[in-house]
């Protein structure tokens, strides 16, 4: 561990994943579809052969799809699996569900948001009005038997019950809280001691981090704590909740990271083509995960031309005029 | 003579015409982006577009291709997150209008965006609810986009991802949903709405060149076509706004008409 002082949480992706992600863990992934997916960390999980992971996400794209495709995932709780126009439904996710390779439980985005929020506040459950009359409440992906035998799962997916505070007693939905073993998020800035700053949209990263037992943050830039302390209104998580800070420039590639780079249309289109068949998908894993064991090698393979093409305009936060077909 | 136009252009404009000035628009991507943006450019400059990811009122100088596209974070009045976006979606003082697409729809506007076949071992898996179930549960109103085919306009959904008018009449209110529900379905053939009393879908407008019978033929459930009128074709001003200001790269509109 290359520490300059004993408060430093800086470590390599290899060390962070090796120490903090265990087989069978309930793992929350930050980001959203094509933005700020923790890709460097996901590739490291695949290289280390982690298995039987239970992913909990709201709307996830590339990191979820790669982990599912690589066979690291046994269970998935999810609201949405897609990367916008590049894969309206994530490709390995779709195949895994259709072939019955993973156990899946569907919720809505608001429901998953509330479940993480409840977990972050130490609430046992949380009510809402979303979903009454839908099959999301009627159809359970995880059976009652699985739920009663697995300590990490609540015994019910959700319950509909009369509003106890209303004279009309109208039905409301009760959702179980979600408390992940570990949350993986990629942010723009962090200090070695775990102060973090997210630019652009925060999605649900703050709730996911606060609900988790362990937290790995990867970041574009490691900056002095004094810089982040000058404008603390901008900071994201309590630093003492962060267990590891991984310096991973372009650590969300091929998804976007506001102010740093856009999503990479060429890479995402290539992925779509290769993910369709097992053989080409395994070639993708070989080329982009196993034969690129660290971030520098990976970025070398992406190449300076494509990295320059997606570099964000510092005022707009994305790459204007990027060919996104 | 009116200029030539494509189905996608007609759909985006027909949906955009349903937007009121000052509406708060919960936008997805694809056609819904076009509808929201073109309405703002033409007749609803005070309408505000926001995204479930937390981007509120972005400049949209380029079209986002996903609701987490960095283009929804640029020139906004507020960058926030999912919790904040859902606080807007269901707010009682706001006329939030949501745009959604789906794989299947039934006669009461309930929709499926999860799977075809058995849920536990589906023939085809789709992305899932995302915020669709939440918008159908809590927005002031929802505008749905559909391709008009018998396999999509079905008697019974394979999976009911999001509640529309449920079994019709007052079923939605009885179920505990306080407001909202689908207000219109915009397809490649026309615009459908829901009867005030029964909440069953009927054909409101056919697009130019489409007959009511053609719409009924492409609908697997019995469809009331007795009230059908004709949609106005796109005006030159509408087409210009859509093509030159909203999607000049034709990322969503696709090829120009032949």
Would you write up a description of this structure?
The complex is a heterodimer of chains A (325) and B (258). With 325 residues, chain A is α/β, with parallel strands linked by helices. In chain A, 32% of the residues lie in helices and 18% in strands. Chain A has a single domain (13-124, 177-309), classed as Glutaconate Coenzyme A-transferase, CATH 3.40.1080.10. Chain A has helices at residues 13-20, 39-47, 62-69, 91-98, 109-120, 135-138, 144-149, 205-211, 225-229, 265-275, 278-290, 295-302, 304-309; strands at 26-29, 53-56, 59-60, 73-78, 80-81, 103-106, 125-128, 159-162, 171-176, 182-190, 196-197, 214-222, 244-247. The longest helix of chain A is centred in the C-terminal third of the chain and has 13 residues, at 278-290. Chain B is of the alpha/beta class and 258 residues long. Chain B has helices at residues 7-16, 31-42, 82-89, 132-138, 171-175, 212-217, 236-246; strands at residues 24-26, 48-50, 55-56, 78-79, 96-101, 104-105, 111-112, 115-116, 124-125, 141-146, 182-187, 190-194, 201-206, 229-230. Chain B has an eight-stranded mixed sheet with strand order 2-1-5-10-11-12-13-14, sandwiched between helices. In chain B, strands 3-4 form a two-stranded antiparallel sheet. A two-stranded antiparallel ribbon of chain B has the order 6-7. Chain B is globular. The model of chain B has no long low-confidence stretch (mean pLDDT 95). Classes of the chains: A alpha/beta (325), B alpha/beta (258). Chains A and B meet through strand 5, helix 4, helix 5, helix 6 and helix 8 of A and helix 3, strand 9, helix 4 and helix 5 of B.
């Amino acid at each position: 561990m290359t520490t300059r002082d004993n408060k430093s949480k800086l470590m390599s992706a290899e060390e962070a994943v090796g120490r903090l992600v265990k087989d069978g863990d309930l793992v929350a992934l930050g980001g959203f579809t094509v933005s700020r997916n923790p890709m460097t960390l996901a590739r490291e999980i695949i290289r280390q052969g982690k298995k039987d992971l239970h992913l909990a996400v709201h709307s996830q794209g590339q990191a979820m799809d790669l982990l599912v495709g690589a066979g690291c995932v046994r269970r998935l709780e999810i609201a949405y699996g897609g990367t916008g126009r590049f894969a309206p439904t994530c490709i390995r996710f779709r195949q895994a569900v259709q072939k019955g390779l993973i156990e899946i439980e569907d919720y809505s985005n608001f429901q998953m948001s509330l479940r993480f929020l409840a977990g972050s506040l130490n609430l046992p459950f949380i009510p809402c009005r979303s979903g009454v009359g839908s099959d999301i409440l009627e159809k359970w992906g995880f059976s009652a038997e699985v739920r009663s035998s697995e300590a990490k799962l609540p015994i019910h997916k959700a319950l509909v019950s009369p509003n106890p505070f209303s004279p009309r007693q109208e039905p409301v939905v009760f959702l179980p809280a979600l408390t992940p073993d570990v949350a993986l998020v990629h942010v723009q800035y962090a200090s070695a001691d775990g102060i973090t700053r997210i630019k652009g949209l925060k999605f649900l990263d703050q709730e996911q981090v606060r609900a988790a037992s362990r937290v790995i943050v990867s970041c574009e830039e490691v900056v002095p704590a004094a810089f982040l302390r000058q404008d603390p209104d901008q900071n994201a998580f309590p630093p003492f909740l962060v267990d590891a800070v991984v310096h991973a420039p372009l650590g969300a590639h091929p998804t976007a990271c506001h102010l740093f780079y856009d999503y990479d249309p060429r890479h995402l289109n290539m992925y779509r083509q290769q993910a369709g068949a097992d053989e080409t998908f395994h070639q993708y894993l070989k080329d982009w995960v196993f034969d690129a064991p660290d971030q520098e090698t990976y970025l070398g393979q992406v190449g300076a031309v494509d990295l320059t093409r997606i570099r964000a305009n510092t005022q707009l936060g994305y790459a204007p005029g990027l060919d996104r077909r | 003579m009116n200029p030539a136009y494509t189905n996608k252009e007609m759909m985006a404009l027909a949906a955009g015409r349903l937007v009121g000035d000052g509406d708060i628009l919960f936008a997805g991507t694809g056609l819904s982006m076009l509808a929201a943006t073109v309405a703002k450019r033409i007749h609803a400059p005070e309408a505000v577009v926001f995204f479930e990811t937390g981007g509120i009122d972005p400049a949209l100088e380029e079209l986002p291709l996903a609701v987490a596209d960095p283009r929804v974070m640029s020139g906004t009045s507020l960058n926030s997150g999912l919790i904040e976006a859902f606080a807007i979606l269901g707010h009682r003082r706001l006329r939030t209008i949501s745009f959604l697409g789906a794989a299947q729809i039934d006669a009461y506007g309930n929709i499926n965006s999860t799977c075809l076949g058995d849920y536990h071992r589906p023939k085809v898996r789709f992305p899932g609810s995302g915020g669709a179930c939440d918008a159908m549960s809590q927005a002031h109103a929802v505008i749905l986009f559909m391709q008009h085919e018998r396999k999509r306009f079905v008697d019974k959904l394979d999976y009911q991802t999001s509640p529309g008018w449920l079994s019709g009449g007052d079923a939605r209110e009885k179920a505990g949903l306080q407001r909202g529900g689908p207000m219109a379905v915009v397809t490649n053939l026309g615009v459908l709405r829901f009867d005030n009393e029964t909440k069953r879908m009927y054909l409101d407008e056919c697009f130019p060149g489409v007959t009511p019978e053609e719409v009924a033929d492409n609908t697997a459930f019995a469809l009331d076509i007795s009230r059908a009128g004709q949609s106005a074709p796109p005006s030159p001003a509408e087409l210009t706004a859509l093509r030159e200001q909203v999607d000049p790269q034709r990322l969503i509109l696709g090829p120009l008409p032949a």
